Amino acid sequence: MPERPYLCQGRSGRAPFGPGITAERQEETLHMTKNPVAERIAELIPTLMGAFHELRPPQSDEEALTLRQYQALILIYAHGQMTLSELCSKLALAPSTGTELANRMVAKGYLLKSGDERDRRLITLRLSQEGYRVMLQRRRLLTEMLSRFLARFEEEDQREFLACFERIAALIHKYGLPPAAPSGD
How many Å apart are CA 55 and CA 65, to the nearest integer? Predict the structure, then answer.
């Protein structure tokens, strides 16, 4: 059977499927979809998310955000500003649900909302100072979490782990997918 290329390969030169997965099951899994690469990534994501989830610090009550609210903050932070309809589209929300989400986030002080004088339906959202503060705090917590996670790795493995993420980011940029969040905080 020919080797399948992976973005990030382990020391063996091939990404492992995990303990207890037979070669037959691996082949069966890879042929479940028309895109075996997508299937393999879908298999890996729970492992990655689980590893990071274990390190996540508890969220303070004062910054209690729902998953959707946090996703909205991330998207608006990454884009600088978004119209309400763009946000609804990115989060797959009905316009009424998106409006409720935005209104709650404005009320909590995370977002600023402005309208177009010519078209009141055109609402633009951007982060408030509090929204930026929350995003920067979350970034600090993420950096601390990743530091604890990477402390278990040998230095060479840390560099390899970083290289994998940099390669993923480069591919996302190459194909014009969502912009990176602004840097320089």
Answer: 18
Domain span at 105: 61-133
Q: Based on DSSP, count helices (H) and strands (E) in the chain, helices before strands.
A: 7, 3
pLDDT at 63 over 70: no
Q: The domain that contains 113 carries what CATH number?
A: 1.10.10.10
Amino acid occupying residue 89: S
Overall size of the chain counted in residues: 185
Look at residue 141 in the predicted model and tell me its pLDDT: 87
Q: Rounded to whole angstroms, how far apart are CA atoms 149 and 56?
A: 10
pLDDT at 122: 86
The first and second tokens of residue 180, run together, are 């990176």
* Tokens read off for 147: 């530091």
pLDDT digits (tens, 9 = 90+) for 19-50: 566 666 666 665 565 788 888 888 988 988 88
Q: Is residue 104 part of a domain?
A: yes
Q: Write phi, then psi, for 145 (nearest 5 degrees).
A: -60, -45
| Listed residue (184, 185, 182, 183) closest to 81, CA to CA | 182
d(C-alpha 54, C-alpha 46), whole Å: 12
Burial class (CB in 10 A: 0-12, 13-18, 19+), 44: middle
Question: Which residues, 6 or more positions from 71, have their beta carbon under 8 angstroms from its beta carbon?
Answer: 91
> How far is the C-alpha of 14 from the C-alpha of 51, rounded, in Å?
20
